[in-house]
Amino acid sequence: MPVVKTSREEAVAAIAREFRAFGYDGASLSRLSGASGLGKSSLYHYFPNGKEDMAKAAADHVGAAVLELVITPLAGEGAPAARVKKAAAGLSKFYEGGKANCLVNLFSIGDAPEAAPGVAKTMAAALQNAFQAVAQNAGANAGDARQRAEQAIVEIEGALVVSRAQGSTRPFQRMLARLPGIIAAGE
Amino acid sequence: MPVVKTSREEAVAAIAREFRAFGYDGASLSRLSGASGLGKSSLYHYFPNGKEDMAKAAADHVGAAVLELVITPLAGEGAPAARVKKAAAGLSKFYEGGKANCLVNLFSIGDAPEAAPGVAKTMAAALQNAFQAVAQNAGANAGDARQRAEQAIVEIEGALVVSRAQGSTRPFQRMLARLPGIIAAGE
DNA sequence: GTCTATACGAAGATAGAC
DNA sequence: GTCTATCTTCGTATAGAC
Q: Considering the entire predicted model, what is its pTM?
């Protein structure tokens, strides 16, 4: 049976955009209501535990996108360098070229209540594992590969912060260009 | 005449700690009042424009620390690699080994009203310039040095995000170890 | 499921006594 | 300068009609 995009799914997508744009505290119920097109009471109908449930749903939604756009390409077929390039393209799409933020960062700030940040951190760990596997395919030993993967995550998060601060996507784009060298160095 | 630590200066230090720990939105007046030991009315006596003034004062306070602990050592005497190592030590102290946050990141999220984020971004730019100068001293041309400096800032911001997310200062410490290689590579 | 209305608290900010 | 008291606004959340 085909997966129909329910009204809830569309609402979740809109809600996730708000959280990524304004953070947990900044994404007020008014904003979430306006962005999703659902009244406050409708929001509580779909998310009985209120904002916490919305954040959790947003994190799950965003995590699925990371899986599809970045982790799957990394785990796919082809040469390590080619897979990293596909992942870089996926990252660019996922982060809208550097304009969108990362929930790992946003949900670490303010009152975000446990579950949502947990999902985000789990996805980040999965991404790091995927990077590590590619680095090992490229010839690095396990420990070295793990450090390369960590550096990749660090540079992704940092480039997003710097790009946002500078109001330019250039730092993010330059980081994407560095990625193959970080993961598959000397292959 | 000796610079006496006025009550205001101590209050600013406490306020800055709160902003760095909870972000702009999260550092409520109640919290700022409690941390500084000043009642709300006293806060408004020292900071007539309220929270906005407090954030600006906090940013100035923190900026002075960056100047002293990181930028000055970078601009000092000695071999480039040695200066970067001093800066790394300064960064470790400034960020409490990776446990403290960066206002450039925090003030980019939420309702922080212009002036304070501006100060933070200006300090980040000054830091990048200092890194660039050292990289040029180490033999890099201007463009290459600028990119190395940008990467350093990116890795600093990213390592802080990752360390916070993982609840470990290890990623930050490993980044510090990479710093000399980033700035003074192949010297 | 969605609406209107509303409860409740916290936040930022101000007034005026001392 | 600091205090108590107060004001307003906003945010989260709920009740109950439709």
A: 0.97
